[in-house]
Amino acid sequence: MNLKYDYVIIGSGFGGAVSALRLSEKGYKVLVIEKGKWFNATDFPKTNWNLKKWLWLPQFKFRGFFKMTFLNHVTVLSGVGVGGGSLTYANTLPIPKDDFFITGSWANLNPWQKVLKPFYKTAYKMLGATVNPKLHDSDLLIKEIAKDLKKEKDFKAAKVAVFFGEPGKTVKDPYFDGKGPDRKGCIHCGACMTGCRFNSKNTLDKNYLYLAQQLGAKILAEKEVFNVETLDKKNISKGYKISYKSSIGKKKKESVTTKGVIFSGGVMGTIPLLLKLKETSLPNLSNLVGKCIRTNNESLLSITSSKDNDKDYSKGISIGSILHTDKNSHLEPVRYAKGSSFFKMMSLPTVTGKYRILRILGVLGILITKPIYILKTFFTRKYAEKTTILLFMQTLDSTLQIKRGFFTSMKTIAEKGKKPNPFIPEAIDLGTKVGAKIKGISYSNFTDILLGTTTTAHILGGSVMGEDAKTGVVDKHCNVFGYQNMMVCDGSVISANPGVNPSLSITAISEFAMSKIPEK
Ligand SMILES: Cc1cc2nc3c(=O)[nH]c(=O)nc-3n(C[C@H](O)[C@H](O)[C@H](O)COP(=O)(O)OP(=O)(O)OC[C@H]3O[C@@H](n4cnc5c(N)ncnc54)[C@H](O)[C@@H]3O)c2cc1C
Ligand code: SF4
Residue 394 and residue 390: Cα distance in Å, rounded? Predict the structure, then answer.
């Protein structure tokens, strides 16, 4: 059969980008299909008040790169566009804590820490990871907290995917012996999560995808894959037909044929697609699709200073430092750039407790007892400069299941252990400590307070590794059980809680999976 491609990759985030480059290097003909847009540096919004350029809500003609998905137990933040989550992420690339490699459904499949070590090294190199050279006010604030906790040694500048050349100066490709694009030195403006307008952030379109294109990989943007079927139902080795339609304009349906297919849509793309396909064209998929979904057990708190001083918490890269608070937990100060204050519209004072009504009464109590602080910090024109966001994460585990809803493509149900908790006591305590230093109180996402759900930028799992189809959706090399030349390479194969930001691990595991594919 004359197949158009050797591999079609669905999604261009970390897993998809690694796959595109490594398969192209091995001589395969590759097509990447991506739901979101291509972005040039100047396409990114100046602040996140430019909702049309920031948010991905194509039904309202908002064609940005940041997506929020509200599920029963969790509000998920993710990226959409050529480069996936790298367009909106905060560049931080920590190595997971030791437990990650020896827990979860993948634990017995490999001595992962040893096996993945060289691939973490490659991932670091490809993403241009380097230690943040300059701490700014919010980093110094967390350093002070570290000192108070007698944990100064556990405070470190973060390793990040940013080009720190001479600020604002354009140079020839500094990473890939001249084969990559020109880059500009970071100016520490804090806008990494609303898109780097200065060509300094090492997004995937500047490394993996750029190099893959040089080798002939084709990238089709603004197209959403909605069906994958075997070309011959009786012979799964014959190849696949991939059907897609425009994700923004007229929904004309098109298709291509391919020998192999790689699902790289991230958890929010791959899992609803696989759940649908299991009921329709790919019935051999494991019954575990959608199970073992994890967050990083995160807590996101924002604290706005009411002190009249010249501290500017918006300066620096989005995440510039990390404090390891104990064996299982760590804290990162996060910032948005000057003017990017949209999230204050989505925040409420943090009030913990089991019962919603008591939390709401608690919020009303704060509004009544602290009107001057509330008004001063809400109406300030310097919201981003005065606000530091605390991102707290833990390795402790709890899992959810994503299912197809009756009216929706996804709903969650709690699986094992406690459901993700929006009010992690250690995080709340750190929020209070930071608040005391800067004369502020903690705020949480409104869904945390009103619904008792948690907010995560690190959704993982749903297509986890196992020994066979009864214990996993994919094997230890990311091959899908029940089909041939079909893989999943993205956050959905992460089979334990890394306890840290996951992009480096997704990159390393995808590199490992690709290393097992022979040359064409
Ligand atoms: C605000 C924010 C900050 C973050 N900061 C960090 C950080 O500092 N460090 C870190 O490690 N991680 C961070 N993350 C998390 C990180 O972005 C994700 O873990 C990572 O991007 C997941 O990679 P992935 O390969 O699973 O897929 P993604 O990067 O999510 O990419 C999937 C791509 O597939 C596309 N797609 C989905 N379905 C389809 C379909 N059917 N057809 C075509 N295309 C499709 C999507 O549009 C998307 O572009 C952050 C996330 C957010 C939202
Ligand atoms: S701090 Fe500013 S210049 Fe530096 S990477 Fe982030 S957005 Fe780009």
Answer: 13
Q: How far apart are CA 439 and CA 368, in angstroms?
A: 18
CA distance 251 to 261: 22
Q: Give the residue numbers annotated as catalytic, written as ranges.
A: 458
Atom from ligand 1 closest to the CA of residue 92:
8
* Confidence grade of residue 298 (pLDDT, cut at 50, 70, 90): confident
Tokens of 201: 């952030």
Residue found by looking up tokens 């981003």 in the block: 384
- For residue 454, give Cα distances in angstroms to 234, 326, 430: 44, 22, 17
Closest ligand 1 atom, residue 14 Cα = 25
Separation of CA 341 and ligand 2 centre (Å): 17
Under the banding of pLDDT at 50, 70 and 90, the label for residue 1 is: low
Q: CA 223, CA 33: separation in Å to the nearest integer?
A: 6
The response to whether residue 339 sits with its C-beta less than 6 Å from ligand 1 reads no
Comparing C-alpha atoms, which of 10, 15, 68 is closest to residue 35? 10
Q: Are 463 and 271 in contact (CB under 8 A)?
A: yes
CB 78 less than 6 A from any atom of ligand 1: yes
Helix/strand/coil for 62: strand
Distance CA 52, CA 63 (A): 6
79 lines ligand 1 (CB under 6 A): yes
Instruction: Give residue ranges with CB within 6 A of ligand 2.
Output: 162, 186-192, 196, 198, 200-201, 317
pLDDT on residue 338: 96
Contact between 231 and 483 under an 8 Å Cβ cutoff? The reply is no
Cβ of 506 closer than 6 Å to ligand 1, yes or no, is yes
Q: pTM for the full model?
A: 0.96
Ligand 1 lined by 260 (C-beta under 6 Å): no
Q: Are strands 56-57 and 30-33 parallel, antiparallel or unpaired?
A: unpaired
Give, for ligand 1, the residue of 63, 74, 78 to mutate: max count of ligand atoms closer than 8 Å to Cβ. Answer: 78
Residue type, 7: Y
Look up residue 460 and give its two tokens. 């993982």
